[in-house]
UniProtKB/TrEMBL annotation:
Superkingdom classification of source: Eukaryota
InterPro entries: P-loop_NTPase, Sulfotransferase_dom
Similarity-based family: Belongs to the sulfotransferase 1 family.
Key word Signal present: no
Span of domain Sulfotransferase: 32-282
Subcellular locations according to the entry: Cytoplasm
Listed GO MF terms: estrone sulfotransferase activity
Organism field: Scleropages formosus
E.C. numbers: 2.8.2.-
Protein name: Sulfotransferase
Any one cellular-component term (Gene Ontology): cytoplasm
Length: 290
């Protein structure tokens, strides 16, 4: 196995196998009932997947246990080495309504999702915590480029050179289209602050009606602690040759504000100045603490 290099797809660096399969990925035609969960990597994708899956199954954990997260919720664009089947392969074997995961920036999302008016849930997480989380993930995910040292990694993030490109363009792209395209735009920090409130927003967006006690159960099943020990959700079933949890577990910390333990005061200053410039004219209410 090797770490895949990144290739430019319409200005966005993506892992080589994704670039090679780009035509079939971008022409994927979803069913109108399919639901897309979209994020920049490390924003809480897996957490939201578990919540959505449990909501659709009315809190029935057994129904969700039938397969690991990445198998029952296909990753639209991913093409990984066996035994993990590619996203398109999995999708072709499943009947709608399917919950589908993507990290594609909005301009690369297959046109069919908009044409068929699919529900799209976007989760954003503040830049500094996303960056820290991605730094650890790139150490353990042996299919993505080596992260290299922390200081250089910060610069790659700021320049949009990591897999799936610029965080800044990603969060802004979905934000600007959220009303026109009826996207539910959520924040990781809000989910941490008041999980019930956000789970209920997802429930309403999906036109579901779930009793309070079932919501309570869903919140328990999708807590960091429970998911960390759930082999269906914590990615430990993925071979060590792809995900090396001894370098960093997938379910790492699950907190808001861990960035303070990683950024030096100089790095905060440099990052914040650049952030001001890149996020100018944007009013996305990000929070780096709760
Ligand atoms: P950390 O590395 O900061 O711990 P994604 O699923 O998009 O790759 O995001 C992974 C991040 O979400 C990791 O962040 C992970 O710990 C966190 N996460 C996963 N499940 C969570 C949960 N139930 N509650 C809070 N954070 C969770």
């Amino acid at each position: 196995l090797r770490r895949f290099p990144l290739r430019n797809v319409r200005g966005v660096p993506l892992m080589e196998p994704i670039a090679q399969n780009w035509d079939s990925i971008s022409s994927f035609n979803p069913d109108p009932s399919d639901i897309l969960i979209s994020t920049y990597p490390k924003a809480g994708t897996t957490w939201t997947q578990e919540i959505v899956d449990l909501l659709l199954h009315k809190g029935d954990a057994e129904a969700c246990k039938r397969a690991p997260t990445v198998v029952r919720i296909p990753f639209l664009e991913i093409v990984t080495p066996p035994p993990i089947p590619s996203g398109l392969e999995l999708l072709s074997q499943m009947k709608p309504p399917r919950v589908i995961k993507t990290h594609l920036p909005i301009q690369l999302v297959p046109e069919g999702f908009w044409k068929n008016k699919c529900k799209v849930i976007y989760i954003a997480r503040n830049a500094k915590d996303t960056l820290v989380s991605y730094f650890y993930f790139d150490q353990m995910n042996l299919t993505q480029p080596e992260p290299g040292p922390w200081d250089g990694y910060i610069h790659k993030f700021m320049k949009g050179e990591l897999a799936w490109g610029s965080w800044y363009d990603h969060v802004k792209g979905y934000w600007e289209e959220r009303e026109k395209k009826n996207i539910l735009y959520l924040f990781y920090e809000d989910m941490k602050e008041n999980t019930r409130r956000e789970v209920e927003r997802i429930m309403r967006y999906l036109d579901l009606s779930i009793p309070d006690d079932v919501i309570t159960q869903i919140i328990k099943l999708t807590s960091f602690k429970v998911m960390k020990d759930n082999p269906m959700a914590n990615y430990t079933f993925i071979p060590k040759s792809l995900f090396d949890h001894s370098r960093s577990p997938f379910m790492r910390k699950g907190e808001v504000g861990d960035w303070v333990n990683h950024f030096s005061p100089e790095q905060v200053k440099m990052f914040d100045e650049d952030y001001e410039r890149q996020m100018k004219n944007s009013n996305i209410p990000f929070r780096t603490t709760i």
